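Show me a record, fold above all:
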Amino acid sequence: MPDDQPLPSPLLDRLAALLGPRGILTEAADLEPHLADWRALYRGKTPCVLRPASTQELAEAVKLCAAAGAPLVPQGGNTSMVGGGVPDEGGRQIVVSMARMNRVRDIDPLDMTMTAEAGVVLKAAQDAAAEAGCLFPLSLGAEGTATIGGVLSTNAGGNTTVRYGNARELMLGLEVVLPDGQVWNGLRRLRKDNTGYALRHLFVGAEGTLGFITAAVLRLFPRARESEVALCIVRDEAAALALFRRVRDRDETAVRAFEYMSGTGVELYRTQIEGGTVPLTGGEHYVLVDLASSRPDAGLRALMEAVLEEALEAGEVLDATIAESEAQRAALWRIREEHPEAQKREGASVKNDVSVPVSRTPELIRRSSAALKAMIPGSRPVPFGHLGDGNIHMNLQQPPGMQAADFLARSHDIMDTVNEIVRELGGSFSAEHGIGRLKTDMMESWRGGAELDVMRRVKAAIDPRGIMNPGKVLP
């Protein structure tokens, strides 16, 4: 059915009858929160928002939409940085909200697994694991809003990837509604299952373009019984990497997170976020070191102090403070986690979610910062992120006095400038945010040839009518 033709009204009537009054939204005020992305890059239209309460309801709704050729857009917490969860401007794409599918179905502390539905908020999953005496380690700034289905569909990374891996590594099995309405139940709790193609990995990172994740079996871990967090001012980017190596070489298993922040980003936090106090000021380069162990006698305080003493003597660390309480640990982490909000309040910014080999991170930060400042005089590079796994958010803040629209008009030029450096360093143009709508035009040059051809064949085989989150991922 052509994109400019409205959906047949009988379809909407059937969907309403299937899902009931709580399961479908059609009023303008109810649709509003589902139409724009968190960054306000895109604003679309939809005839309705579906809110199924179960996998079977979703499957039946997908069958109806497939028969009518109606495109579907899955939406979790709508925290995508690349416009992956909003409809386009045509007005035909139906949004499917997973908000009502929010049950933790099972927790097994012996198997160390949790089975959670797609609409479970990440923080709720963390809390449920903690109540069972376990840890679900995936952690990111939007964890109070992002959902399990969303973080798996985008293969989210976050702060603890250096220790536990991305969302993909934390998933053992999936339940998925396919484009024809079939339900694939792959909710297996097995660590070993060598039985042909690992289908579950097709859907993680696919951003809903192959099917909709409805539930997942997640890996749990022993909870931390000892932890230490330090904020450091380091000499430069190379010193930040040197400090990471020192900590890693002492005890790689103790490193839960290792985050880099620029002085510009820390200052934006201090001025833009209410209560944004910073115990160490005046630095150009900061590092947040987070150590944790499930052993109560791990000696992490002594380890942290020894490493920092060595780094101070070597001139790599210029100043440092170690948190003395859980409240202080949270306050130090807040400096890092509020970076996106601080940038948003400061004005327009362009996000560059990129990764390079860990050893090349100092060069990425130095070269990109210099190139961006030369490209747009007065602009302010705000690099921050997961130095321990090579993922740096190489963001750029608009110059003071420049109109936001004029600055954002240079978005693709800015991204191209960073990406050319990333390419030279053997990196990726998307580390953890995914492709969404924002980066589809980059796929041809970065993943063209055989790789993109295989992706298109997979899409055509599983979703031949192209109704699952169209316009995302593939150019």
Notes: The chain has four domains: 9-99, 104-222, 226-339, 347-431. The CA atoms of residues 229 and 328 lie 9 Å apart. The first strand starts at residue 24 and ends at 25.
